[in-house]
């Protein structure tokens, strides 16, 4: 099958998206998003999406390119505030607090909801400084030794410490792509966030580096709540417990990963995961 | 025909041969409808013919004009030698000159009764030589132009690659142009170098580089005073450094803040207004800055000095430095802004995503990442400041005081070069030659700064590629 994916053939036929099917909500939600709409100027990128991120679980966001996965993810830690023409409506609640409330400081929020980007983006500083960056700006360490410890444990959690312990003072940009991405993960967990958002964290990596990252994600979910955008069905199936399928800015189906991949309820989901689109 | 007339004639022939070339190409192809059989377009044949006609003829004209005068002169001298005894030959150049003037007078029907018969004879010979030369020039040029066209027209066949030949000619022309620029640069450097060497044969290098006395006036007559002729350039170097430092102290912080504001905070609307404004600031002629400094800023500073009971001289280093600082703000800000915007957006997002504020992100991530570019910008600005002339000529003094005090009057290398060469000068006196030595120092310094800046800028470019 090599159908070219356009908006026409995705909505064509009798398939309609009428609200979302499956189980987008759960009892032990870390974050609850309700009736989210996102506009880029006049252009609506997200249409009335409601879902929960379950505590200490990995939620995978999948869907064809341009369906709004990144947009939705970036709303969760208010990265879209950086885009002037972007307008967000709806409610985002984390532990009972509304993220878009007037008294919510987006800077503090981003320390609680960390983000790992598609392309590794270490700062042009030493490996040590990269990891120490967050703790320093948030004043998490009162002494040098405390900072050292944070850096070491973060690197250890990211599975990078043994590889770089002899060259912590060397530039982070000198690492391999996979190491750089793990450095970025270490950098993110160094500020002890509660939620980690990952936007295609392994798309620039080779299979071995990808496997390392996936293993890391599985370990991290013990302590953190994770949302991950991915284009790889296998990856979503391997690392996530919940999967949300987006289509043209709408949430089509969400539920347990096992159930989504073995027995999807919606025709579009089935088309997508069986490789008929994208 | 004069050379200008001839050049025009050649151009007209060239235009005509453009048409000829096209005609010929069409004929060779066998008519308008068959031009596709040619390997090149008809107009390319035309252009090639025109170039072939014009270029050799013009080249010949140029060479001829360059050597004509000296050939005519040497022929004239030969003739004069035959008719004069050796004693009169001492002043040959004067003689030849007189003959030329006489020839001109004869042509203009002026009074030549004072001239001897022999002189008149020589003048007539000179006129004759010139006429012959002009005829020869005209003839040869036209023959070359027409001849080249004829040769080329016979060459045009269906398989003649006019396109490729044209390409070669164009690249040759471009090469010549860049060669001219290069040669000019080398020429300037050489002349400055040789004059400097001449200067250093009169004044020792060590005295020039390490002497602390600058007073280039040399007594021309015994009764003049004050002309000791000391060429210690240290006060000038210090003055230059002082004024440039003041300028940079203003330009670096202000320029960087402008760069940060424009690249990070300003709305697109504001940026679209502010950037052209800054570019206008860079485009203001320096002489305008000069009288702004001399007439507005300097008195202001002096009045302020009176207010706080500080004796500030009218031509203080401070005034010149501050205005120069304003002048180079755009250099710092525009290049630094480029460096800041060149930092990948991913780094900024990474930092913001970590919970850093905007200003923390700028200070800790964007700025360090852009540092090489910013250093390059600053070095370029410094070399601008050191080489700047007009502002300091108008606003700084001429007194070569050895001081680091910004409220006193100092002078700079460029100001001294101007004042050394101002007015009528003997061209081989130490005073005049000193200007070249100063120029050489300036050239070496700015060149070194520019090379360093370019190296750094290039290095940072590679960083993100
Ligand atoms: N900065 C922006 N300005 C305007 N429109 C944008 C912007 N970013 C995204 N969009 C639009 O929003 C829609 C969703 O984009 P988004 O990046 O969220 O898709 P995605 O699902 O992440 O796609 P991909 O899998 O290719 O990364 C697209 O139609 C896109 O054109
Ligand atoms: Mg995306």
Describe the structure.
The complex is a heterodimer of chains A (278) and B (465). Helices cover 35% and strands 25% of the residues of chain A. Chain A has helices at residues 7-11, 69-76, 106-112, 127-137, 144-157, 161-164, 177-189, 207-220, 233-239, 257-262, 267-273; strands at residues 21-22, 29-40, 43-54, 58-62, 86-94, 97-98, 113-116, 195-199, 225-229, 242-247, 250-256. Chain A has a 7-stranded mixed β-sheet with strand order 1-11-10-4-9-8-7, sandwiched between helices. Chain A has a 4-stranded antiparallel β-sheet with strand order 3-2-5-6, covered by helices on one side. In chain A, strand 2 (29-40) and strand 3 (43-54) form a beta hairpin. The longest helix of chain A is centred in the middle third of the chain and has 14 residues, at 144-157. Chain A starts with 6 loop residues before the first helix and ends in a 5-residue tail after the last helix. Residues 1-13 of chain A have low confidence and may be disordered. By secondary structure, chain B is mainly alpha-helical. Chain B has 3 domains: 3-160, no CATH class; 161-201; 214-464, Orthogonal Bundle (MetI-like fold), CATH 1.10.3720. Chain B has a two-stranded antiparallel ribbon with strand order 1-2. The relative contact order of chain B is 0.08. The complex binds adenosine-5'-triphosphate and magnesium ion. Adenosine-5'-triphosphate binds next to strand 3 and helix 2 of chain A.
């Amino acid at each position: 099958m090599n159908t070219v994916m356009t908006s026409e053939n995705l909505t064509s036929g009798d398939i309609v998206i009428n609200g979302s099917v499956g189980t987008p909500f759960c009892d032990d939600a870390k974050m609850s998003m309700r009736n989210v709409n996102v506009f880029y100027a006049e252009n609506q990128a997200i249409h009335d999406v409601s879902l929960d991120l379950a505590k200490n679980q990995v939620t995978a966001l999948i869907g064809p390119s341009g369906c709004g996965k990144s947009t939705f993810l970036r709303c969760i830690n208010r990265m879209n505030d950086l885009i002037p023409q972007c307008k967000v409506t709806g409610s985002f609640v984390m532990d009972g607090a509304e993220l878009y409330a007037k008294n919510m400081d987006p800077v503090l929020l981003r320390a609680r909801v960390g983000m790992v980007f598609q392309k590794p983006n270490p700062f042009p500083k030493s490996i040590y400084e990269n990891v120490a960056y967050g703790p320093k700006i948030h004043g998490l360490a009162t002494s040098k030794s405390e900072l050292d410890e944070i850096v070491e444990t973060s690197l250890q959690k990211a599975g990078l410490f043994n590889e770089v312990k002899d060259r912590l003072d060397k530039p982070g940009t000198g690492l391999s792509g996979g190491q750089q991405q793990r450095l970025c993960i270490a950098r993110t967990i160094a500020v002890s966030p509660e939620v980690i958002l990952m936007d295609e964290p392994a798309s620039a990596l080779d299979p071995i580096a990808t496997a390392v990252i996936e293993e890391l994600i599985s370990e991290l979910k013990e302590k953190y709540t994770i949302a991950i955008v991915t284009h790889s069905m296998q990856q979503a199936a391997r690392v996530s417990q919940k999967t949300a399928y987006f289509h043209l800015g709408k949430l089509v189906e969400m539920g347990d990963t096992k159930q989504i991949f073995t027995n999807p309820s919606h025709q579009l989901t089935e088309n997508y995961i069986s490789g008929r689109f994208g | 025909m004069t050379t200008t007339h001839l050049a025009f004639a050649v151009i007209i022939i060239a235009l005509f041969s453009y048409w000829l070339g096209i005609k010929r190409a069409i004929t060779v192809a066998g008519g308008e409808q068959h031009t596709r059989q040619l390997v090149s377009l008809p107009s390319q044949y035309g252009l090639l013919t025109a170039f072939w006609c014009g270029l050799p003829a013009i080249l010949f004209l140029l060479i001829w004009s360059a050597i004509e005068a000296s050939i005519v002169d040497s022929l004239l001298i030969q003739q004069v030698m035959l008719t004069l005894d050796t004693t009169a030959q001492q002043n040959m150049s004067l003689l030849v000159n007189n003959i030329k003037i006489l020839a001109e007078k004869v042509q203009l029907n002026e009074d030549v009764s004072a001239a001897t018969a022999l002189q008149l004879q020589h003048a007539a010979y000179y006129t004759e030589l010139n006429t012959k030369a002009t005829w020869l020039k005209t003839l040869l040029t036209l023959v070359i132009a027409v001849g080249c066209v004829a040769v080329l027209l016979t060459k045009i066949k269906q398989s003649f690659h006019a396109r490729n030949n044209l390409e070669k000619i164009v690249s040759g022309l471009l090469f010549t142009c860049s060669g001219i620029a290069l040669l000019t640069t080398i020429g300037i450097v050489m002349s400055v170098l040789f004059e400097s060497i001449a200067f250093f044969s009169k004044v020792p290098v060590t005295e020039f580089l390490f002497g602390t006395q600058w007073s280039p006036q040399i007594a021309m007559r015994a009764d003049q005073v004050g002309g000791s002729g000391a060429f210690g350039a240290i006060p000038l170097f210090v003055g230059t450094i002082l004024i440039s430092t003041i300028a940079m102290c203003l330009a670096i912080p202000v320029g960087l803040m402008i760069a940060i504001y424009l690249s990070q905070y300003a709305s697109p609307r504001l940026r679209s207004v502010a950037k052209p404004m800054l570019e206008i600031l860079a485009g203001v002629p320096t002489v305008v800055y000069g009288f702004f400094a001399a007439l507005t800023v300097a008195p202001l500073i002096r009045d302020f000095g009176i207010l706080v009971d500080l004796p500030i001289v009218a031509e203080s280093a401070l005034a010149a430095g501050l205005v120069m600082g304003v002048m180079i703000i755009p250099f710092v800000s525009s290049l630094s802004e480029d460096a800041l915007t060149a930092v990948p957006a991913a780094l900024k997002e990474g930092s913001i995503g970590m919970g850093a504020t905007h200003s923390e992100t700028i200070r800790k991530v964007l700025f360090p990442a852009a540092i090489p570019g910013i250093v390059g910008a600053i070095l370029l600005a410094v070399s601008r400041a050191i080489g700047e002339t007009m502002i300091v000529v108008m606003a700084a003094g001429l007194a070569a005081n050895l001081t680091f005090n910004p409220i006193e009057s100092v002078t700079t290398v460029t100001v001294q070069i101007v004042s050394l060469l101002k007015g009528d000068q003997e061209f081989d006196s130490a005073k005049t030659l000193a200007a070249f030595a100063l120029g050489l120092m300036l050239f070496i310094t700015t060149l070194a700064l520019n090379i360093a800046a370019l190296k750094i800028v290039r290095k940072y470019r590679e960083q993100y590629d």
